[in-house]
TrEMBL record:
E.C. number(s) listed in UniProt: 2.1.1.176
Annotated family: Belongs to the class I-like SAM-binding methyltransferase superfamily. RsmB/NOP family.
Stated name of the protein: 16S rRNA (cytosine(967)-C(5))-methyltransferase
Organism: Dissulfuribacter thermophilus
Main location: cytoplasm
GO terms for biological process, alphabetical: regulation of DNA-templated transcription
């Protein structure tokens, strides 16, 4: 058991994440994992609380900063450890109904003392005093009080994102998106059809007291109702009965529609969320190749394949760069290529709130260049009459529709196909506009898809 409590770990995690320059900031999720392993075993309830506080603070960062600044006498620069402790305390007091105020306050002050290692009793005294005021005035910090704030503060999103969406969608729709991004999404699983079916997985989870319901859009989705604990501790995880995957991401697999006997490439496989789905959809009878450039993700991909029992069904290329893996003596032509491209990730802010703070507007232009390079490089590997399925977890036009329209303009031997026939009936509520596939929060994560066919 760890002698460090969840508040200590939450402050430590957030401090490490906040102190990095945006360009060098690791994903919040990996900082959380690092803290878990560094500070000893936490039970799964405490692990869940660390994750809940850390992601909650990042989700509501600007609003918390604004609220805290109202309680500071000296508005000058405040020590980052103390500021982080205040945000951790204020988040619990204002957002976490299940945590009593006295526990939020006392535990956060104790964690601050431990962090300061007796260096300064003034520091923890200051945290104590500010949090006490927040508890006292909690009733006044109501919706109407903060509703007056500009949306970028009220809903804690960077100004450039709010401006961009406001120009595209208008204020009302922008506010709905900001609100959806700030809501904690459910944990969604994709049943591994090679090991069991959806009903069996739901029964197994319920036998262990975990409420689970079928997803709405993907026939393989299982949604955990109110369970935010550690995934690795779930029954069936080690046995490979499921993969964690949002319903929007699951629908991308259906767009690829791999058939038995086909040769398919997952060009940017990441940890294998989609490669493993392609195995399931072809009932293990397609030949699937996977490339992943980042070494740690490639290692996680192999782990996942092992867990899900698919190690012999996906050929992970030694050369991780999909633009180099099939050159010269190693040429392969594919029936289908999935390009789940590196992108700004603005469609998955609800799951990874750190994304909104790590991005700047110029990233979109840079990523678009990379996406076009990948599309142009991969098109040569597709057989005539074969398909290239382009997907992103962003809905920004430069990375989606405008990019595909540009590609089609310069590549007359390619056409855009209607994705509707590939989408399961249960996903009829998902948007298809001008032959482009969109899944959007709050129904699902924000995913874009385009099915391109090589005509000659
Ligand atoms: C959107 S993520 C893929 C997520 C993955 N498909 C999944 O479902 O888990 C994009 C991935 O592309 C990888 N990547 C970027 N450039 C690449 C390249 N040239 N070749 C192969 N992988 C690349 C990144 O490391 C990243 O893991």
């Amino acid at each position: 058991m760890s002698k460090f409590g969840p508040r200590f770990l939450a402050i430590k995690t957030l401090f490490r994440w906040l102190r990095c320059h945006r360009k060098r900031r690791p994903p919040l999720e990996s900082v959380i994992e690092e803290a878990y392993s560094e500070y000893g075993e936490l039970n799964s309830k405490d692990r869940a609380l660390v994750r809940e506080i850390a992601t909650g603070v990042v989700r509501n960062l600007t609003l918390l900063e604004w609220l805290i600044s109202r309680y500071l006498k000296n508005k000058g620069k405040i020590d980052l450890t103390l500021k982080t402790a205040l945000m951790v305390g204020a988040y619990q007091i204002l957002f976490l109904k299940k945590v009593p105020d006295h526990a939020a306050l006392n535990e956060t002050v104790e964690a601050t003392k431990r962090l300061l290692k007796g260096r300064s009793s003034r520091g923890s005294g200051f945290v104590n005093a500010v949090l006490r005021r927040i508890v006292k005035e909690k009733k006044n910090i109501t919706e109407s009080y903060i509703l007056e704030l500009p949306p970028e503060i009220r809903y804690s999103h960077p100004e450039w994102i709010v401006k961009r969406w406001n120009e595209r969608f208008g204020l009302n729709q922008t506010i709905s998106i900001l609100k959806a991004n700030n809501k904690r999404p459910p944990v969604t699983l994709r049943v591994n059809l090679l090991r069991c079916n959806r009903e069996e997985l739901i029964r197994l989870l319920e036998d262990h007291g975990i409420k689970a319901i079928p997803g709405k859009y993907s026939p393989q989705a299982v949604i955990l109702d109110g369970h935010f604990g550690d995934i690795r501790g779930l029954p069936g995880f080690k046995e490979g009965y499921f993969q964690v995957q949002d319903e929007g991401a699951q629908l991308i697999g259906f767009l690829v529609d791999p058939k038995p006997g086909e040769v398919v490439l997952d060009a940017c496989a990441g940890v294998g969320g989609k490669s493993t789905h392609l195995v399931e959809l072809s009932r293990g009878r397609a030949t699937i190749f996977a490339c992943e450039k980042t070494v740690s993700r490639k290692a996680a991909l192999s782990e996942n394949l092992k867990r899900l029992g698919m190690i012999s069904q996906v050929k992970v290329m030694e050369e991780g760069d999909c633009l180099r893996a099939f050159s010269k003596g190693n040429k392969v032509y594919f029936d289908k290529i999935l390009l789940d491209a590196p992108c700004s990730g603005l469609g998955v802010i609800r799951r990874h709130p750190d994304i909104k703070w790590n991005r700047v507007v110029s990233d979109i232009t840079q990523l678009r260049q990379l996406q076009m390079t990948l599309l142009q490089g991969l098109k040569r590997l597709v057989k005539v009459k074969g398909k290239l399925i382009y997907a992103t977890c962003t809905l920004e036009p430069e990375e989606t529709t405008l990019l595909i329209e540009d590609f089609l303009k310069n590549n007359p031997s390619w056409e855009l196909m209607d994705p509707s026939p590939f989408i399961p009936g249960s996903a009829s509520g998902v948007l298809i506009k001008k032959h482009f596939f969109y899944s959007t929060p709050p129904k699902t994560d924000g995913f874009f898809g385009a099915v391109l066919r090589r005509v000659k």
